[in-house]
Every structure is written in structure tokens, then in C-alpha cells.
Amino acid sequence: MTPAPDKTKTLSNTHRAAEAIRQRIFSGDLPPGSDHLETELADELGMSRTPVREAVLVLETQGLLTVRPRKGVRILPVSPDDMEEIYEVLTALESLAAGRAAERGYSAEDLADLAQAIDAMDTAIAAKDREAWAKADDAFHRELVRLGGNSRSIEIVDRLADQVRRARLVTLNVRPLPVKSNEDHRAVMEAIARGDAEVAVARHTRHRDEARQVLVALLKRLGLRKI
Amino acid sequence: MTPAPDKTKTLSNTHRAAEAIRQRIFSGDLPPGSDHLETELADELGMSRTPVREAVLVLETQGLLTVRPRKGVRILPVSPDDMEEIYEVLTALESLAAGRAAERGYSAEDLADLAQAIDAMDTAIAAKDREAWAKADDAFHRELVRLGGNSRSIEIVDRLADQVRRARLVTLNVRPLPVKSNEDHRAVMEAIARGDAEVAVARHTRHRDEARQVLVALLKRLGLRKI
DNA sequence: GTATTCTTTAATGTATACGTTAGTCAATAC
DNA sequence: GTATTGACTAACGTATACATTAAAGAATAC
Hints:
The structure is a homodimer.
Chain A: H1 13-26, E1 35-36, H2 38-45, H3 49-61, E2 65-68, E3 72-75, H4 80-104, H5 112-126, H6 130-148, H7 151-171, H8 181-193, H9 197-222
Antiparallel strand pairs in A: 1-3, 2-3
Chain A binds a DNA duplex through helix 3.
């Protein structure tokens, strides 16, 4: 997700277009590899080409699509190799955040959201509710980076997490329920709580590396169809 | 720097505008904190508002400026705190790259550019040529990330390095010549050459952390004027 | 003198029109 | 039958015109 540029009310059409297209990509409505003319998108969104063009330019810099001059905008596929790259960066930045969070000396109260996300994952796993688990997992990682306090990291991770979410569209119902991963989450949180940056970093790095291996292997096994 | 979108010849005005504005920011021609109307920029660039708007939108997502609805585009200042954030992310991603590069088992030949950058820094320091040193230092860090092989990292680091370059506009001629930093560079390169990822990561992390401390302290000492 | 409201204005956000050009398809030459 | 060339078309890149709106200032009421 990307933060709303205007919290009050009057979103510009450009922002609406960007958000709409982004949603349609994540929902699978604009599938990876598909092409779309600016004119079509504009018609479908009920606006002129101008805001659509502007939105598309932004989404291009965010790596969701490319503009191919007379072929339309192409929704970018995410290959297993891409996902490996994305996870590498995510791992580095989230681990950085875990370390910084530990150094900041947060109180138990400060970590309430983190704890809540962990509980929600436990609940979801008990109920075998994959959607709920994914949502809580997102919340945990997002909150972790927020606690790191580096706004640039937050922004970059947000953008990359978008892509991970796209991958999950495909993998969520195929992969085994990650019953063990909450042990890692708890360990990371506890390390942060007691100010142990080293363990927080090490544990989180291992956690993400393992997740990456599972996901990439799964994507490769699922075969050629790009996400 | 940002890779040219079209290597052949026919750059669109949008790309030209983006590049021109970027250059004007780095050259100090558009100072941090200054405001500029789209119309003015368009006139100065000899084109209409449309490509300028598109360029500005992209630069906004890259964190160089913000569009403030009836006030013009504001060139963003880079505070010491901002620089601290930027260095944190740079450190994490460059260190990641150093580790991955070590794992890849590069030959001495593969590391030639790295070695060349190091030599250039030695030469520059002997000649007390700060400009040359900065250029070679840039080349070293850029090549390091390239060797890491993660294209997302490369892109992110490129964007952040832009900001570091802006800071150097102010600090380059004030700070002491970093006579000792090439020891770190050499150690990192040697660790990569012998495939020692752990040392490569640790040494580079330390190197960047020290550089960050020097730069941030200097920026704070130089005082209130934002970059 | 101050505060409120109205008016004005200027800059943006959006639509649209137009020129350019790449891609397509057909026709013709071989 | 194949390949090359040419015209055509449709999509994009850019310019421009228009609508919208927020900021600034003036005027008036108190």
C-alpha cells in the first residue's frame, strides 16, 4: 500500500488513477504480461488520458509496469528471480529496522501492535485462515519497519511489499501454513523488547531468508506462468 | 545518476526535462527549499507544461522535490537527519551487495573496476584533489553494488546516492581528506576476492557507519542551512 | 482597529486537439 | 511463394485551452 497523498478529501484524478490501476494489478484484473492502451484505461476509469498518463508514469518508476511506446502499458511479471531480489532487499531493510528498533528501547506498550499481529497470526493459523494470516503477517512486518524509524526504509519496503503481495496471490493457497514462523516473530519482538539489537537482526535475517527460500522454490515449482 | 531510458537518440521531452531539472538541482541552480512554478520551468526548458509536469511527478516519487498545489514545486532540503536515514539504507544495501559479491566468486579481472577506483582515490588523495576523490569514491560504491547483482538494490542505491552527492556539494571542501578510507575499500575488495562474505559485510558496514558519523556531524556543525 | 466576507487572480488539474511515428498490411517485383 | 517497399492507421508525445480552486487582498461591518 502507499500512503494517501491527501488525507482530507479531494484526491486528484491522477492519484485516483494510480490507486485504481494499482488495485487492479493486485486483484489480478490487470494480469502480469498484459498490455493496455492509455485510452482504454482512461475510458474505463472515466477520465481523460492526462491523469492516466501521469499515474502510469509513477507506477512505472515503482516497477509495476512499463510503458512501451506503441504497444500500451505492460503489466510487469514477477519472476522467481525478481522475487529473490525483492526478498533480499526486504531482508536487509527489515533487519536493519529490527536492530534500530532494539536500540531505541521501546516499552512493551510501544510494541503492542507487534504483539497483536503475532496473536492474530496464531489465531489465524489455528483457524487455518490463510487470508487472515497473510494480513497479520503484513501488519507485523510493516509495524516492524515503522518501529525502525527510518522513513526512507518504510517507503522502500512498502513498495517492495506490494510485489510480495502479488506473489502471494499465487502462492497463498498452495504453500503449507507457516505454523513455525511465529516463533521467529516472537523471538524478534522479545529481542527488541530487551534491547538486544544483535539477536533481533540475526533472527529476523534468518526468518526472512527461510521465507525467501520457501517462496522462491514454490514459485519455481509452480512453473512458467509469471505472476 | 539515472540510466538513460533510451540509448539510441530520441529522448522524449519528458525525459529531457527530468534530467535537466535533476542536473539543475545537483548543480545548485535550483537550491533546496526554493519554489518554482511549472510554467516557469516549462519556459526555461523551452517546452510546454505537459512534459514538465510529467518529469516533476517522477522526481517527486524519487524524493527530490514535492509539488505543493498552488505554491509551485519545492526543491526538498536534505537535513542531517535525512542524511542519517539515507546513509543507514545505503549501508544496509551496499553491505548486502558486498556479501553477495563475495559469494559469487569473482575473479581478479571481474574486480578490475573496483581496483581501479581504489587506485584513483589514492592518486586523488596524493594530489589533494577532492573532486577526483569524490568521483572515484562514487565509482567504487557504484561498482560494488553492481557486483552484488541485485538490480533493485542498484536502482535504490542510485537514487539515494544522488542525495549524498547533493550533500557533498556543501561538505566536500570542508571535510578532511579521507586518507584512511581506502584501507577499508581495499579490505572489502580483498574479502570479496577471497570469497569471505562475512568480513566483506562487516568491514563495509563499519566503513559506511564511520563515514556517516563524519558527514552527519559535519552537516550539523555547518548549521541550519539545509542542503 | 479588527475581523469577516467577498472578489479577484493566478496556478494547478484536466480535457482535448494535433502532429509524429511506429507498426501493419497490402501490393508489387522478383 | 517470398521479400521488399510503400501507404495507412492508430497510439503516443506534446501543446494548448479550459475549469477549478486556493490564496491574497480589498472592502465593509462592527
